[in-house]
Amino acid sequence: MRYAAAAYGLIGMGNCWSRYGKGQVPWMCDEDVIQDLTGSNRSDIICINPGEGIYQPAHFVAIDHKDKEVIVAIRGTMSIQDVLVDLVCQNENFTSVLEDEEDEMVVEGKAHEGFLKSAQRLAGKLHEPVVEALSNNPEYRLVVVGHSLGAGVATLLTLLWARIPVFRARDIHGYSYASPCCVCESISQAPFTRRHVTSVVFGDDLVSRLSLATFRELQRDIANISIKNNESSNQTTDADDEEKLYCAGKVWWLESNEYKPHPIVEIDPVEDLHHIELFSDMLTTHLPWAYLDALEKLDTHSDSGTENPI
User: Fold this and answer.
1) Residue among 279, 281, 214, 294 at smallest CA distance from 246
2) Does residue 148 have an active-site annotation?
3) Pick from 192, 179, 194: nearest CA to 107
4) I want to staple 246 with a disulfide (CB 3.0 to 4.6 A). Which of 55, 171, 179, 188 is the partner?
């Protein structure tokens, strides 16, 4: 999660220096944030991109020599262009794989259009520098991480790259924190997806339940409560037939009120995150520092004997 948080750079994480900074001097640039949050040396940062417009989210690529990983970190929503990507939320056709060993067994499904277009652009843009980094570090695996919008793009980028032999041979894996709804049910829990993607949801985070279909569903539920709207609420909308999207892969839920007292449980998002629920903390639990603190707390539980699978 620290790499995903570091992708926000100085503007997004600068006010958190007193909580997460390790040095005596406040962060002055994006490189300071990455270095302090991840423990990387500046020479380990291959590239930093602040974002180049719509469907081109900010990101950086770095080498983690301690864990032997080449890491692609993608920033969450922080610009007008990012908001536009979030709002391009119609379902788009997407082809993935059912089983890891059998590429011919494909799954035809749906994905969030904005996230998919962003992942496709990054897949092309970063292909050569990531291949070169892997070539220079032959024993390292490939990891793609992101928070929020970055998590949705990370999921789809992982699924795209996992079909390419040079990346699959490096045990590519995506870690999606505060993961938004990005793929349909058949892709979300396919064995191929579960092998290559891990999603993390904290508490009452709204974003992991939010898609065009669930939003329209909430609209209809609210309309049905009002007697004045009873007639109009029975009318169909364009999204009545819209397939619901979910976060993907192995999905871990931190500090869920539904599974107390367990600090973390693996869930099926189709069963547990299939509609919007409104809570007072549904927005604050989505913030990157909320996830950093929750995972740090989980590490403390792990030291006490609770298994940490993330």
Assistant:
1) 214
2) yes
3) 192
4) 188
Q: What is the pLDDT of residues 233-274, one digit of tens each?
A: 455 555 456 799 999 999 999 998 888 888 899 999 999 999
Terminus-to-terminus CA distance in the chain, angstroms? Answer: 10
Residue 212, phi-psi category: left (phi > 0), alpha (psi -120 to 50), beta (remainder) = alpha
What tokens appear for 165 in the block? 């032999």
| Residue 120: both structure tokens together | 């496709």
Q: How confident is the model at residue 153 (pLDDT cuts 50, 70, 90)?
A: very high
Q: What is the DSSP string of 227-245?
A: GGGHHHHTS--TTTTPPPE
CA distance 148 to 154: 10
Number of CB atoms found within 10 A of residue 225's CB:
9
Q: Note the pLDDT tens digit of each residue in 34-71.
A: 999 999 999 999 999 999 889 999 999 999 999 999 99
Helix (H) or strand (E) holding 53: none
Phi (first) and psi of residue 156, to 5 degrees: -70, -35
Whether 57 and 90 have beta carbons less than 8 Å apart is answered as no
Q: What are phi and psi of 7, to 5 degrees?
A: -65, -20
With a CB cutoff of 8 Å and minimum separation 6, the contacts of 193 are 96, 159, 183, 187, 248, 249
133 backbone φψ class: left, alpha, beta (φ>0; ψ -120 to 50): alpha
pTM given for the model: 0.90
Selected catalytic residue, list 40, 118, 148, 256:
148
- For residues 73 and 146, the answer to whether their CB atoms sit within 8 Å is yes
Q: Which two tokens stand for residue 52?
A: 């180049």
Higher pLDDT, 27 or 236: 27
Q: Is 176 a catalytic residue?
A: no
